[in-house]
Amino acid sequence: MIHLVTTHRLRILFTDSTVLIRGETGTGKELIARSIHAISARFGRPFITLNCAAIPFDLLESELFGHEKGAFTGAIAQKIGRFEMAHTGTLFLDEIGDIPLVSQSKLLRVLQEQEFERLGSGRTHRVNVRVVAATHRDLTEMVRRNEFRRDLYYRLNVFPVTLPPLRERRDDIVPLVVHFVEKFSRQLGKRISQIPQETMFALIAHDWPGNIRELQNVIERAVILSNDGILPNPLSPVG
């Protein structure tokens, strides 16, 4: 996946600059984030993820920064946040456009100063974290509508990476199919020795509205249905 980032721009990935990955849902934004981490000086150190859209607004700051026991109702023990967990490594913030405005100023501070306080504590914690963020939203339009802080957008958008949908990069389909066949063959204990030409042609021709995530699920189904080491066409109607 890292080949999607052009060679002449790879140099910045070896720095600690913040990266903002944009693309439709399922285009492989986390795969790119992991690739960026893997070629950086932080490889071998923590790679921590947080899907900002999956966390209720009232719990998001606790997930990011942690909290002390008794900080709020239900805080029965101290909790370490994702920034502390990612210390010396990389924090991948998926769906960054879903962070509420009230929390964006605190995120901006930790990006700029590399420091924060846990909820319920006045003690400042310093961290050394590289942030890679991703979104399927149009953040520039959100800034225009005052739904996303302009200063936070500029701080995140140091090095933008745009992932085209899979239908616009069909050359990636064959290596992705091979990768997922190998992955699910190992997981499911099956041996796939042949991918028929007509099956591969059908996969290349498909529009993949769900992008890489859809392709992955389709290949998993094909491996499950395979017999005699031959990968069936998973796009054919199942009788």
TrEMBL record:
Coiled coil: none
Keywords per UniProt: Activator, ATP-binding, DNA-binding, Nucleotide-binding, Transcription, Transcription regulation
Residues covered by the Sigma-54 factor interaction domain: 1-224
Family annotation (Gene3D superfamilies): 1.10.8.60, P-loop containing nucleotide triphosphate hydrolases
A UniProt-annotated Pfam family: AAA_lid_14
The protein's name in its UniProt record: Sigma 54-interacting transcriptional regulator
InterPro entries linked to this entry: AAA+_ATPase (IPR003593), AAA_lid_NorR (IPR058031), P-loop_NTPase (IPR027417), Sigma_54_int (IPR002078), Sigma_54_int_dom_ATP-bd_1 (IPR025662), Sigma_54_int_dom_ATP-bd_2 (IPR025943), Sigma_54_int_dom_CS (IPR025944)
Biological processes annotated in GO: regulation of DNA-templated transcription
PROSITE patterns in alphabetical order: SIGMA54_INTERACT_1, SIGMA54_INTERACT_2, SIGMA54_INTERACT_3, SIGMA54_INTERACT_4
Listed GO MF terms: ATP binding; DNA binding
